[in-house]
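Dock manganese (II) ion; give full complex structure.
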Amino acid sequence: MDTQKMPDSPATEPFPTFLRLPFVSNAKLLDIAIAGVPFDGGTRLRVGSRQAPRQIRTASELLHGLHLKHGFSPLDLCTLGDVGDVVIAPFDQDANLAAIEAFFAELWDSGAAPVAIGGDHLITLPILRAIGRTTPLAVVQFDAHADTAMASPEGARFTSSTPFRRAVEEGLVDPRRFVQIGLRGTLGSMERMDWARAQGIRQFTVDEMYDIGIDAVIRETRSIIGHHPTYVTFDIDGIDPAYAPGTGTPVVGGFSSYEAQRILRGLSGAAVIGGDVTEVSPPYDLRGITALLGASLVHEIICLVAQTRAGRKEGLQPASSAAASPN
Ligand code: MN
Ligand code: MN
């Protein structure tokens, strides 16, 4: 199978794949597997992010592989493929969380680094269950919300507001190597924020981001995650709704598309071993602007993962990273 078809070639796949990559069902052939998770069962109010994998793949037809700032295409560094979507069943939360975990565990055990297209932010919990089993991961989270609530107002423990509370409780991530960027707005209680800080999570509110500057945010984030295996999770509502209107819980007063890209590019050289883009909601989008932003952020994350994979091939990856890498 030709797994290195250039993204500029005409689309020949039966459905839109990310970046016109080949559809590959055997993840053993891949260094990086792009997977869709059409699940929004963790959303309380405005559902719709289940439609994002298809829309983001379609929007990605506008992109090329080559990244101007990095100076490389991830396809030149390693082997990429689109492995399709996790099969989601209607109204069966337990089965869906198990299905997402099993899907990503199979990718991880096959040696492929996962980059997921959500879906709402609850999908990150079963992904972390799949890949954080042996070594608790460092996390960089872009989000207007901390997602560290104990439960929803109705008492539900598994919603898009709770994934990182559960991930810390389950030991999947290291809260002392956990950075949240973009927090702002209104919230039901301070408990979720106080709890997160008490665990050691570093929270950058938008106010602090603008007080200290983007480059200071990058520097401190780099010092916190170090060379530890790091998962990048990007909730599109971290970005201001002027740039990202198509999302379930928009919060005004966020950072810009470019500031998001600048921070992600500032993670170049960190040991990023996987990531996701969540909470794009096509029913609330305007002319596909948010889907295109989501596709662009997926590409940014793929570049970071590709650097990690290429570095490992060259024997440059730090030992602490190799410990938690696939195979
Ligand atoms: Mn979130
Ligand atoms: Mn959010």
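Observed: The domain at 18-324 is CATH 3.40.800.10 (Arginase; Chain A).
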